[in-house]
Amino acid sequence: YLPFILSKIGGMGNVYDYTYPVAFGDSFGEIVKRVRFDFDLTRAELHRERFVNVFQAWCKKNGLQSRVQSYGRGYHPLEGSFDMDIPEGETWVKYGVGKGLSETDYRVGRAYSMANKYVSSAAHLQGKRTVSCEELTNTDMVFNATLQMLKLGSDQSIISGITHSVYHGFNYSPPEAAFPGWIRYGNFMNERNTYWPYFKFLNLYRARVSALLQQGDMYADIAILPPVYDMWSKLGAQMEPFPSIMYPEWLHQVWEAVHQNGMGCDYISDNVICDAQMSDGKMQYGPRQYHSIIIVSVESLAPATAEKLLAFVQSGGKVICIEHVPGKSLGLNDFEKNDNLVKALVAKMKALPGRFIMLARPAGDFYHWFRNIAKEYAISPYVEIEKGNSFISQVRYQAGETEILVLNNCSYDNSYQITVRPQASLVKGRKAWIWDAVTGEQYSIPEPSQIPLTLTQADLKIIVFSNNAGAKNASVYTEVPPVTNNNKALQGNWRVVLKHMNGTTKSETWKELKDLKDMPDHVAFSGAVHYKQVYSHRSSSKLSFIDLGLVHGTSQLFINGQSAGVNWFGRHLYKVNQLLVQGDNEIEIVVTTVMGNYMKTLTGNPVAQYWTNEKRKNQPLQSMGLVGPVNIL
């Protein structure tokens, strides 16, 4: 059968032509699919036996922990990570991150790879808290990645279950290498990048989040069975984490919709189901317990798997089949007999319609689709997110008696106002705080059962419910007011100093703020732009904030020479009530831009041209600078 199950392959072993010279009849075609499954299952078993087990034993013998990206062709995408001490996924920075979330291609709008949900689920099923990630790999837009973009990608990793980031950094270059140095693969995370003075803020933020989440266990009470075995049968094992064919192409939408609607889930496998205990409407596997199993586009099951699913449904659990209802068995041996066994077991499940639920694949809008499904079949969220959408997601962690909710807005451009209503079990007997991972500060929440939150662009907020005392003298969390027509916008000319990274400086006067990309004299700028203006504060009213409006880059605000802080993502808002004085105030805003537009102009620099002007790395011009309007609140 080998000539019939192997196809023509290209880069990284991906199939580029599934067309066989001779058409298969239905009967023989079915046999080929079954043999293809047996082949890939055997490969995965051999890989575990001959590499994973051997490597793990060697690590243990030498007192080492294993950390492996244990997925890809030859591995089971979930079970491949079971044996690793530190399983690891991948997150990539790509154009369009946070711009729009495709329903058919998980790579569009997202940074996490296809493997992350498998890897984090494997860690949870094995009771492991450290879930590593080769994070923020960047092979397309090295000179145009902003700190906000890096944060957004990292936050999407968190939602996928990652708790430990290992940046995919930069090449080590010899000192004599011409600017910008050697760049082969990855980000440009070094002192030659314009964002380098502010890079520490991203590191501190990510370290705080990791330190917190590694103390707890991600909560999930819904399990998702992807059609891995059907994929092997139809297409053969894919090259994870970036399969040439995603099967089904909308699989990612299901787990995302679960989390977007205030619930948590893990991927599982046939073997997990077979090894689990089914009782009292729950599936128990190791430390994990699930009340519902969502079966996504699964057509084939082993009889043993179908038997355990029947026991689960009979005990009171819910099985939800999307697109297909399993109707045949796996593999070639005794397949006709096994097909009949699977059909008989599924027929018994169908006799319990309130607990065995068959649903068509939604046409789109998975967020609202799952929201309606949960209501119809009484699947209760542990947190209700009022005015949520597909950009707003969450994860829940438990650390002893402490409950942690992590809420994320993965939109690069839009801010959202939501209301968070935690389940009573999270709130009862506990106090609540907002833990600001950017600053490390804590704020008490006086009414934890209903929490209004504004999630700005690329924002992430952590709510902690605990019996502990929390921070002493913690101030009460309050929402910052939005900009309204009653606020004062800074008017008049701006004195502007442009300090280019090439060492040149220009001083100009502007009547209005503009995107540097739209100014012919400055479209190729890269560096720090200093915007200065005098604000006369004559009234007795107390002013608390300055909102910079639209900013492309990292901003820093100075009032009368004193720093009001740095903003590197989201809303560029500064608290200034202690800095503004009666009379004239010198306002200085420093915005640091990306490098890409400048690198495009270095026509004699091969490295710059490769990463900004050539082939698929041909970069569009980037927006830069302070656009405003600047308002005083």
Can you walk me through this structure?
- The protein has a 6-stranded antiparallel beta sheet with strand order 7-17-18-23-20-21. Strands 26-25-27-33-30-31 form a 6-stranded antiparallel beta sheet, with no helix packed on it.
- With 633 residues, it is α+β, with helices and mostly antiparallel strands.
- Strand 10 and strand 11 (282-285) form a beta hairpin.
- It is built from 14 helices and 35 strands.
- The mean pLDDT is 95.
Question: Which SSEs are present, and which pair or pack?
Answer:
Elements (H helix, E strand, L loop, with lengths): L1 H4 L2 E2 L5 E3 L8 H36 L5 E2 L17 E7 L22 H11 L6 E6 L9 H13 L4 E4 L31 H15 L3 E2 L3 E4 L2 H7 L16 H10 L4 E3 L2 H6 L1 E3 L2 E4 L2 E3 L1 E5 L6 H12 L3 E5 L12 H16 L5 E4 L6 H11 L6 E4 L5 E8 L2 E8 L6 E7 L1 H4 L3 E5 L6 E3 L6 E5 L4 E7 L21 E2 L4 E7 L4 E6 L16 E11 L7 E3 L2 E3 L1 E6 L2 E6 L5 E3 L7 E10 L3 H6 L4 H7 L12 E4 L2 E2 L1
Parallel strand pairs: 3-4, 4-5, 5-6, 8-9, 8-13, 13-14, 14-15
Antiparallel strand pairs: 1-2, 7-17, 10-11, 11-12, 16-19, 17-18, 18-23, 19-22, 20-21, 20-23, 24-35, 25-26, 25-27, 27-33, 28-32, 28-35, 29-34, 30-31, 30-33
Task: Give a quick summary of the entry.
The chain has 633 residues and is α+β, with helices and mostly antiparallel strands. A six-stranded antiparallel β-sheet has the order 7-17-18-23-20-21. A six-stranded antiparallel β-sheet has the order 26-25-27-33-30-31, with no helix packed on it.
